[in-house]
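Re: that backbone. Tokens:
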């Protein structure tokens, strides 16, 4: 009884938001991991989050015990654990655009003989949620969960074009331009002109804006209300013959497949008919 009373007293002494702050710090630890930085030591985590080493170790140990982190015995570094992969699988299978889009993504890759990509907008980035790769084509943008600045990609611009421009400006002001090549868009007037053009023609282009020697064409996917909730694209190397003329030819196939996915999602439009051999 005395132990119960002591525990109750300790609980009362804790700040009301103690649990929320603890959870937030644990999430900050997990958010350090990315496709760029896949491994962290406790010391580096403590420095990155400005935490005492003992505090960082306690969080890391708890996350490891729960399966959210795993320790590499040989090096002592930590990586994302299998529990995160399990949750990611749940999230992916709840995305209607992915559930209905994967079959059409495969068909798009077949008829164009190129890599096909599926993504959604997440903050100021595109988040890759699906892809279809043809083995003879170099793999590009094919990591599930990869994030890329939206305004530098055909996928992202196909979605940003249908957002109010004030919202697009806010996103970029918060997250920055983050240019990757000399061709990356780095001004609002240029971006606004590009987004206006995308709305007029119905598809977006990435002309070596994210990676030199890479071109992409993307088109938006709509839900039953007509809102743009995702995009698909095809990509290839300029050195493999991806000319500007070839991009224009591929645009028809990409737009047609995006329209079919939109139809499957309930978008109220005349049902598009796939022609079987588009390219």
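Recovered sequence:
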């Amino acid at each position: 009884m005395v132990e119960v009373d002591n525990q109750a007293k300790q609980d009362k002494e804790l700040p009301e938001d103690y649990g929320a702050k603890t959870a937030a710090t644990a999430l900050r630890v997990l958010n350090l991991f990315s496709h760029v930085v896949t491994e962290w030591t406790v010391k580096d985590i403590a420095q990155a989050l400005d935490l005492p080493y003992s505090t960082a170790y306690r969080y890391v140990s708890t996350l490891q015990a729960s399966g959210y982190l795993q320790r590499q015995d040989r090096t002592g570094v930590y990586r994302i654990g299998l529990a995160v992969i399990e949750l990611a699988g749940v999230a992916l299978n709840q995305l209607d655009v992915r559930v209905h889009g994967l079959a059409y993504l495969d068909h798009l890759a077949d008829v164009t003989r190129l890599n096909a990509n599926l993504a959604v907008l997440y903050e100021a980035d595109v988040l890759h949620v699906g892809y279809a790769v043809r083995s003879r084509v170099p793999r590009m943008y094919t990591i599930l969960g990869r994030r890329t600045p939206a305004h530098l990609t055909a996928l992202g611009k196909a979605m940003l074009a249908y957002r109010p421009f004030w919202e697009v400006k806010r996103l970029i002001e918060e997250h920055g331009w983050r240019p990757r090549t000399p061709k990356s868009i780095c001004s609002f007037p240029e971006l606004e002109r590009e987004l206006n053009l995308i709305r007029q023609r119905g598809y977006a282009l990435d002309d070596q804006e994210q990676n030199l020697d890479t071109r992409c064409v993307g088109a938006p996917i709509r839900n039953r209300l007509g809102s743009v909730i995702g995009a698909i694209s095809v990509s290839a190397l300029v050195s493999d013959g991806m000319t500007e003329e070839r991009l224009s030819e591929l645009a028809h196939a990409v737009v047609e497949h995006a329209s079919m996915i939109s139809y499957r999602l309930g978008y109220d439009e005349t049902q598009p008919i796939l022609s079987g051999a588009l390219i």
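Residues 275-279 have pLDDT under 50 and may be disordered. The first helix runs from residue 2 to 13.
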